Amino acid sequence: MRNSSLSGRLRWVFFVVIALLTIAFLVSTLLIIRREEQESAVREAESTLIGLSGSISSSIE
Q1: Among the four 14, 18, 33, 61, which has the fewest Cβ within 10 Å?
Q2: How many Å apart are CA 53 and CA 59, to the nearest integer?
Q3: Which helix or strand (DSSP H or E) is residue 30 part of?
Q4: To 5 degrees, how large is the angle CA 22–CA 9–CA 20?
Q5: How many CA atoms lie within 13 A of 52 on its CB side?
Q6: Which SS3 state, helix, strand or coil, does residue 1 take?
Q7: pLDDT 10s digit of each residue in the chain, 61 long?
Q8: Residue 20 burial by CB count (10 A; 0-12/13-18/19+): exposed, middle or buried?
Q9: Which residues of 45-60 are buried (b: 16+ CB within 10 A; e: fewer)?
Q10: Is the pTM above the cut of 0.85?
């Protein structure tokens, strides 16, 4: 009887650990994706500004 309750507790602990690891993985993945999207938007904006400044410079000359 005691072994089965210990076995049940170990299964429960194992399940909780796996669930926490899965949640941590998903949260970190979402944070990384969000950061990469923001950095990509900044790079695209910088590229657009460089292109526009080049066009304006050539128009002035």
Answers
A1: 61
A2: 10
A3: helix 2-60
A4: 15
A5: 6
A6: coil
A7: 556 788 889 999 999 999 999 999 999 999 999 999 999 999 999 999 988 888 887 778 7
A8: exposed
A9: eeeeeeeeeeeeeeee
A10: no
